[in-house]
Every structure is written in structure tokens, then in C-alpha cells.
Amino acid sequence: LDAKRDTVMEEWWNRNLHLRRGGYDRILIPADYSPTVADVEARGIHGEVFVQEILWLPFAEPRRFLDRLGDELLPALDELGLDLLGAYRVAMRPRQVLTIVGAREWSWLAAYARAVGPDARSGSAGSVSTWAQYKAEVTQHAEEMVLIPARHGSLYRRPA
User: Fold this and answer.
1) In a designed cystine with 89, which of 29, 33, 93, 141 is the match (CB 3.0 to 4.6 A)?
2) What is the mean pLDDT of each run of 10 residues along the chain (160 residues)?
């Protein structure tokens, strides 16, 4: 018997198997600057909405992509009212990266989408514009998922 096994999560998982429809699990390799769970808790990161992106890039590009994200986008996130929750390469999928960004308010997510979206070249300034242009050039395919934090979770932004 595995003494470290989380039996509460195992019970939850088994009880909710009927809700799962496809997909696959990923083993994630964090960028050096990607915060740990302890970092997220220590900084008190919370928000109304989070966006998970899975991007398919050219071979050999994921490391360069994450380096540029750290250099060009990470410094601007706080100004945009956003927090990085994770930036990862995906093991055994050499073209994929996965990022999770949290917005403290919904409107800030919209501003971020405008800043890094396909039309960002004309409206953004500085490192965000450079980042958006690079991201658009190298991304071959992308999937986004908007996530709302559970009310009992530490990421949930409690009303004032």
C-alpha cells in the first residue's frame, strides 16, 4: 500500500470518472521562473479568472519561447493586473508549452487578450508588443481554456 497516496483525491477522482470525456495527462517541466505552489500561496495570488494555454510550436522552440516569455512578458504582467501561475514545457511532447495566467478582474483579462492577441501589433507598447508579435509568429496551433477558481480554493478572489 502506498502510504503517500491521497485517498481523498482518489475517491473524488473515481466518483467523477463519468464526467471525463477524452483528453490526456501531461508531465510538465517548469521554466526557472515558474512559481511553485508555495510561491503562489506566499504571494497571495488570487483572481476572478485564469487562462490555460497549450501552444504547439516548431521543434526546438519551446525553450526559447519560455525564455522570451520570462524576459518580455513576465515583467509586464503585474502592470496588466495579471499573475503567472505556470510556464511549462511538456515532457514527451517536444513542440508543446503550457502556460497559466490569472487575472485579478475579468476586465484585466480582456486587456491582456487585446495586448497579446492577433491585432496586438498595432496597439501594444514595449515588451508586450514585442512578445505578442513573436508569439503570433511561432505559434502553429493553440488551445485556450478559461478557468474559474473554486470558491473553497486558495486562488478564489473573495469579495471585499
Assistant:
1) 29
2) 68 80 84 94 90 96 97 88 94 96 89 73 63 93 91 73
